[in-house]
Amino acid sequence: MTPVDLRSDTLTRPTDAMRAAMAAAQVGDDVYGEDPSVNRLEEQTAEMFGHEAAVFVPSGTMGNQICLRLVVPPAEELLCDADAHVVTYEHGGAAQHGGIQSRTVPGGLMDAATVEQYLRPPGWGTVATSAVSVEQTHNRGGGRVHPLEVLQQLRDLTRKQGMALHCDGARIFNAAVASGTKLSEYGALFDTLSVCLSKGLGAPVGSLVVTDATRAKEARILRKRLGGGMRQAGVLAAAGSYALDHHVERLAEDHRRAQSIADALGVGPVETNIVPLEVADAPALAAAAREQGVLISVVGPKKVRLVTHLDVDDAGATRAAGVVGGVLGV
Ligand SMILES: Cc1ncc(COP(=O)(O)O)c(C=O)c1O
Does 44 sit in the ligand 1 pocket, CB within 6 Å? Predict the structure, then answer.
């Protein structure tokens, strides 16, 4: 039987309709800015977020790396939470590629009152905080959504201090659908966003840096320097445009299935497509579930997560909940 894979928002195969869009894509050389499908995707994304420009990049990690370098000069400080992807899963990229010093507040969702205590404006004789980074939704925070008013307060605070605000929006589409917030409302709050097409939206590859025209020009140079300048990338961009056109609203189904798994396992409400579980022995649970064809991620010695996505239908969610519940004895 095919395993049910809930380790991440990973697809085993793009949908047939997405593959048809990829096959039909017009391509050119994107390093010259001449790939019509990439140009369309970049314009479409910039417009959705109400920004001047967007730059197609191979991954969310590269998107974050570029954004952070746009807003934090070398040897200055990025402030984020201790569980943020940018300081947890990017192998020190901000430090190595950007010379960026990171400082963290306790992990999880951030609020302005907490962040304010950590900011170090220029002129204090300390390392200056140049930018604050927020993750929407929060991956290690169990797919929770930063409420719009909290983000607005963070924007007000950072603006008052002359600091930039970055969004790691790998799952910002989930946040928008779950909270009923427009992408342009989120876009208006951030100087830079990195948004992923390859998570719940189901494209095989790709993220976008969303920002103003000046920073976007610099982003193209940074992307090339990192080896992320792609040539006939329109085949991938076409998958991205298809995903934006067809796979945003359906994220609500993933959220419903995540909630059904959480209900079956007797854990609290979930906000989007991630079900975090505190267990006695996370590796043992994951191994036992794998033997029964259900793949889940170990994210701590006593923590696993289950992620619903385009490849997990109602039967898959029921099977996953049954297997994990069976191992846990709930
Ligand atoms: C919150 C967050 N940011 C960034 C990324 C990086 O995306 P990618 O795997 O495309 O590099 C991920 C990937 O899981 C993520 O969860």
Answer: no
158 ligand 1 Cβ < 6 A: no
Summarised one tens digit per residue, pLDDT across range 118-174 is: 999 888 899 999 999 999 999 999 999 999 999 999 999 999 999 999 999 999 999
Q: What b/e sequence results for 248-269 when a residue is b if at least 16 CB atoms lie within 10 Å of its CB, and e otherwise?
A: beebebbbebbbbbbebbeeee
CB 264 within 8 A of CB 274: no
Q: Considering only CA atoms, which residue is closest to atom 9 of ligand 1?
A: 60
For residue 313, name the pLDDT band (cuts at 50, 70, 90): very high
How confident is the model over 66-111, as pLDDT tens digits?
999 999 999 999 999 999 999 999 999 999 999 999 999 998 899 9
60 CB near ligand 1 (under 6 Å): yes
Ligand 1: residue whose CA is nearest its atom 15: 170
Distance from C-alpha of 86 to C-alpha of 289, rounded to nearest angstrom: 29
Q: Is 10 in the pocket of ligand 1 (CB under 6 A)?
A: no
The residue with tokens 């314009």 is: 43
DSSP β-ladder status, 274-278 and 303-307? antiparallel
Tokens linked to 143: 């797919």
pTM over 0.85: yes
* Domain limits, the chain: 16-246, 250-328
Match domain 250-328 to its CATH number in 2.30.33.40, 3.90.1150.10, 3.40.309.10, 3.40.470.10: 3.90.1150.10
Regarding the beta carbon of 85 and ligand 1, being less than 6 Å apart is answered yes
Is the CATH number of domain 16-246 3.40.640.10?
yes
pLDDT of 61 above 90: yes
